[in-house]
Amino acid sequence: MPESVPKNALSSPSLDALQRWFQAATTHPGGITAGAQSAPAVDAIPATTVDEIVCRSSRQSAEERVAVYAQAYWARLLECLREEFPVLRATVGEEAFDGLAVGYLIAHPSTSYTLGRLSETFPEYLRSTIAADSGVDPFSELVVDLARLERAANDVFDASGGETLGFLTVQQLDRVAPEQRGALNLALLPTVRLLSFHTNVNDFFTAMRTSAESAPTPEICRTFVALTRRDYIVRRLSLTEMQYELLTAIATGQSLSDALRIVCERQTSSQIETIAAAEPVDSETLRTWFADWARVGIFAALEP
Predict the structure, then answer these.
(1) Residue 176: partners with Cβ closer than 8 Å, 6 or more residues away
(2) Interacting residues of 259 by C-beta distance below 8 A, sequence separation 6+
(3) Phi and psi of 157, rounded to 5°?
(4) What does the pLDDT look like over 70-113, one tens digit per residue?
(5) pLDDT at 303
(6) Long-range contact list for 266-275, CB < 8 A, 24+ apart?
(7) Do 73 and 80 form a contact (C-beta atoms < 8 A)?
């Protein structure tokens, strides 16, 4: 049985118009009918039904034929989210994750040429839909923190890093005279993310990567993590609050001595005395911190 001819087939819309119409029809979160009647579709080709653009087949209507591509498009987006958040998916379960992901895709349709930006606002969406309804609930907060951690890891993997830009080495640090170290302006690599969380998400994440049975109970507690990449492997480093604040100050362009001063000013007076006595700029404690951070790839190489 031959395929029927669309009503306006003789008008021969341009390839560009057909492509814009097809994109609007297949990517609309409301379905094919809503997509074909949307402003971008009508602007491309002023038709009111799919049958005016696409031929039906012996077994499928025009809308059913286009729906095949729409279903593949949305399935691909869902699969991308599944792949990007494996620990979050394992934590909440497949069905619950898919429900959250589909809700997110409907509320925040993809608008970028790259799928790398698909999940940019997924953590904020989870907070608005889960944490906001549950209040300060450890599990809900953990869900949001997991989304933030896995999303940040994805950013770190894609960013330009020390593999091409160069890493600061321990040897470079040691060559700086002790009296000059306070004036150092260290630069964090584009692959570094400094994160503050509401839960024990890093310990939970580590345990879930090994065995879900060994995962600790979600707890409300402030924790700090640095993400970086070395040899194209994303690495997670637990930080104390002081380490987090020190690296954050350095990231804003502060010299080492100014960054230490800022951190100390945020402590209580008793803590300031302790820090000043035990951790001066050239102390062994600080040297150990910076040596460890250099090894995992936190800082860019020093200028000659």
Answers:
(1) 184, 302
(2) 246, 249, 250
(3) -65, -35
(4) 999 999 999 999 999 999 999 999 999 999 999 999 999 998 98
(5) 75
(6) 267/242, 275/242
(7) no
Q: In sequence order, what are the beta bridge partners of 228?
A: 235
The position carrying tokens 């990567």 is 209
Cα(74)–Cα(109) distance, rounded to whole angstroms?
A: 10
User: ∠ at Cα 158 (162, 27), nearest 5°?
Assistant: 170
Amino acid at site 113: Y
Domain ranges of the chain: 9-84, 160-296
Show the tokens assigned to 207: 């345990």
59 half-sphere exposure, CB direction, 13 A CA radius: 0
Q: For residue 181, what is the DSSP state?
A: G
- The residue type of 160 is S
Distance CA 162, CA 145 (A): 27
Secondary structure of the chain: what % helix, strand, coil (to 5)? 60, 10, 30
Supply φ then ψ for residue 41, to 5 degrees.
-70, -50
Q: What is the pLDDT of residue 3?
A: 53
User: Over the stretch 45-59, which tens digit does the pLDDT of each residue have?
Assistant: 998 789 999 999 999
